[in-house]
Amino acid sequence: MTVVSQVILKADDELRYPSSGELKSIKEFLQTGEQRVRIASTLAENEKKIVQEATKQLWQKRPDFISPGGNAYGERQRALCIRDFGWYLRLITYGVLAGDKEPIEQIGLVGVREMYNSLGVPIAGMVEAINCLKKASLELLSVEDADETAPYFDYIIQAMS
Q: Angle CA(114)–CA(54)–CA(100) in degrees, nearest 5?
């Protein structure tokens, strides 16, 4: 939920107008809008490149994942892994656009550990995969934009850990 939505809902619940502090937080949120849109656009426009680089990094670090018996062995399993990279990258853009981690939590993290455990996917491997995705993504952003984006990746990593 965005800062704007949070302020409105809280004020409405309390039957009052937004406070000056709440209005200031909305102003600050709106001032970062251009940056948030720029980050989301860069990630979306470079999804294929980011996913390819993250996949390459992961397979180099963990060749056992694509070896016989590994969780990403075979075309189908490898394709599912790559699909998840794109899905997590999209979740990051949702969080960045909202300026909040709540969309990531609501859309993508509820039950994620249980799902991967039930599928026999090692959580440590998923954490490593998200770290590779983070690295490949942040390399395409300016230092300022990378600093704004990194906590959203870290949030997913922590939720899986």
A: 60
Distance of CA 143 to CAs 66, 99, 117, 138, Å?
Answer: 33, 18, 35, 8
Alpha-carbon gap, residue 36 to 30, rounded angstroms = 10
The CATH-assigned architecture of domain 33-160 is: Orthogonal Bundle (1.10)
Helical spans, DSSP H, in the chain? 3-13, 20-31, 33-45, 47-61, 75-98, 102-104, 112-119, 123-138, 143-160
What is the rounded CA–CA span in Å between residue 93 and residue 105?
13
Q: In 10 A of CB 83, how many CB atoms?
A: 11
Say if residues 61 and 55 touch (Cβ distance below 8 Å).
no
Return per-residue pLDDT of the chain as tens, 161 residues: 678 888 999 999 999 999 999 999 999 999 999 999 999 999 999 999 999 999 999 999 999 988 998 888 888 888 888 888 999 999 999 999 999 998 888 887 776 777 777 777 778 888 999 999 999 999 999 999 999 999 999 999 998 88
Domain residue ranges of the chain, discontinuous segments joined by + = 1-31, 33-160
